[in-house]
Structures are given as structure tokens and as C-alpha cells.
Design a protein that fits this description.
Layout lengths: L2 E5 L13 H21 L29 H4 L7 H6 L36 H19 L6 E2 L10 H9 L5 E4 L2 E4 L2 E4 L2 E4 L4 E6 L7 E3 L5 E6 L2 E6 L1 H18 L6 E6 L4 E3 L7 E4 L4 H8 L8 H13 L5 E2 H10 L1
Parallel strand pairs: 1-3, 7-11, 8-12, 11-13
Antiparallel strand pairs: 2-14, 3-6, 4-5, 6-7, 8-9, 9-10
Amino acid sequence: MAQLVKLQDYISRYQIDLARYPTQFVRLKKNQWDRVKRQWEAGDEIEQWEHIEPATLVEEEEVDKSRFSFLKKLLPTRATNDSMAEDGVAESIDVSNEPDEDYIPEEESTLHFEPNIVYNPKTLDELKRMFMDQFFHFQMKWASSTVREKSYVDPKYMRDSFLRTCLQSLPDCYLLFYYPILQIKKAPIELEIILLTPTECIIIKLLEEDDQAVYIGSSDRFWVKKVGKIEKKTLSPIIDLNRSEAILSQLFQQEGVEVPIRKVILSRNGYIDYPGTAYGIQIVDRRKFSEWMQGIKKSVSPMKHMQIRAAQSMLKTCQTTSFQRDIWHVETSAE
């Protein structure tokens, strides 16, 4: 499951300590899945899945090393993830220079993962699907809250099928920025979907407004979109891709980040007809989507230092709109 590092301009706990949270995310998911799978295989009746103790979560700003030195005894030892890899739920993940786990403090009870059994799964695949669907909702919390702050999440993202597909299908070592809003010269600029793999940065322009649409591309400023017998002009997606690429290239250069950038125009429910070759751009429509997805999800590389640096450079520039949790509670109680 890919990690949702930044969603629009929402607060993200990855902004606090990007070097630590990726491993925390994978460890939490692995521990939960191991527990659920073990109970299911044993035939235990599970009315509600227990949440992992919040000792495995982190807020760097809350660290008090002396107070939490006893946590070493409570944390599970690092083990191989072979069973998880076979299940397809999680893989091993490694980040260079990971901080010492002896000093992982207890987080306040703000993020408990407590998925519910809505029906009795008959197979391991059904159990896995139920787990991943409910973990998706947990990921949204990770990408919109910290101990102190919280962002209002637009409900459309909970129904966003491409966001769900990315998070549930791609490896744990992939970092996803979903339409991040960057502050460039004091002006907010929304980028396209950014996927940071261990080896490259992929910018994705999604074309899915109309089902069964046919896009006829060209080097002009406008493309032609056909939906049934209706034909109209639409702004070339290459323009948005090139803008995002230019911003990221400049940002990476300023921060000394060396990551190749690849651009993709993607439509899962339509067709793209581009005569000739779009230089430096990969075109993927519904005919090629499955093959393309299988190709990018086959990464066997652990997270790289340059990948983390690329993500950090973006997070430093991202705009954040959030509210203090005490304000959130006051507003909620007043409703």
C-alpha cells in the first residue's frame, strides 16, 4: 500500500518527521494484519478488530526520551515480512538513517485503527480486501491530522477510486502527493498527482471526466474530446504536465535533489489517440492501464535517500490549511 504523504493542502503527519513515519506506517499495518489474519485462521469470532497501541506512532515534537525509555520493552521486535509479502498487504521497507526506536513516544489517542467486521469473510482474499478498504480510511486520517492539528477533508476523496487504487495497489515504498498545493512566490499553485518511487518522480495527469470519452491529441494548445456524438475542444493536458514538471525541476535543483521526472497522461475510462509521439510523455488509456499499473508496482527497491529528500523538498514548499484540535472540538460541540 503506497503512503499518502500529502493530500491537497491538508496537514500531514509526514511533515513532522518524514524519515520516521514511513516505517511507522508499515509497522502498524503489518502488526494489525498479522493479528487479524491470525485470529481469522484460528477461527476466532472477531466482533471488532483491536487497534494497535499508539506507542507505535510518533510526534517528534512530543518526544521526552527519559519519560518513554520503557517503551523498548513494549515495541515488537523487528521481524521479517515474508508472510506479509505473500499476502500482498505489506512489504518490508527500509529508510537509511532511521532514528533509534528506543525513543518512540506514546501519541495521544487521536489515531486508533479500529476496523469493524461488517461480514464474516469466507476466504483470505475477502479478509484482505476488507482490511485494505478500512485501512484506506485510516490513511486518510494520517494525511489530514496530527496530534495538535486537523484539516477538513472533502468527502469526494473518500470516494476517489484512483486515489484508492494507488494506495491499495502500489508498494509501501511509494510516496504519493495527491494534487499538492505548493507556495511558489507567495502564490498557491496546485500540481498534478505526484508519485515518488525509489528511482523516479512520476507526474500523472488524469483524464476521467467522462466515461468512454475519446481524446484526440496534438501539439496544439487544445485537444478534441469526443463523447458519443458530442465533440468539443479541451485544454491540452500537456500544458498542466509541463507546468508541474517545471516547478518540480526548479524545486529539486534548488534543494540538490537528483531524481528523474517522468510524465504520464492517464485515462482509465477513456481512449487517447495521439498521432505521432508525445516527446517525453507516456500516454496510458483504458487499453494499457492494467499493463502500466503492473509495470510500476513491480518495484523491489527499498526507499532511497534521494526519494526522501525529494519528498521533503516538496513538503517544505507545500501550503497547509488546518485547525488546532481544541478549536475543532469546540466547533464540533457547537454544531
